[in-house]
Amino acid sequence: MRVFNLTELGAAIRSARGTKGLSQSDLAQAIGATQEWISRLENGRLPNPGFANVMQACSVVGLGISVGADDFQPEIDVADEQPSDLALSTPSFLKRP
């Protein structure tokens, strides 16, 4: 399964947790978090969960994390912009058609 955002990550963790028969409280206790933190993570409402915390949660529920760039290419068109303009421009995925 490929995950592209925190909402998808949370759903994957929730699904794997359910498969393992763990409650949110069980997972929270296993990684030293609160049940509320797990709930927010699983619902995509935790804006910055911390990579180490996510790795721990994934490990407990049996999910692995892999990183690769071979087939991922973001659709950002910067051909017409100067490097100094990049910080000031709106990314293409935020521009309205």
From TrEMBL:
CDD domains referenced in this protein's UniProt entry, alphabetically: HTH_XRE
InterPro entries: Cro/C1-type_HTH, Lambda_DNA-bd_dom_sf
SUPFAM superfamilies from the UniProt entry: lambda repressor-like DNA-binding domains (SSF47413)
Protein name, as recorded: Transcriptional regulator with XRE-family HTH domain
Gene3D superfamilies found in the cross-reference section: lambda repressor-like DNA-binding domains (1.10.260.40)
Positions of the HTH cro/C1-type domain: 13-60
Organism superkingdom: Bacteria
Transmembrane regions: none
Pfam family, one: HTH_31
GO molecular function: DNA binding
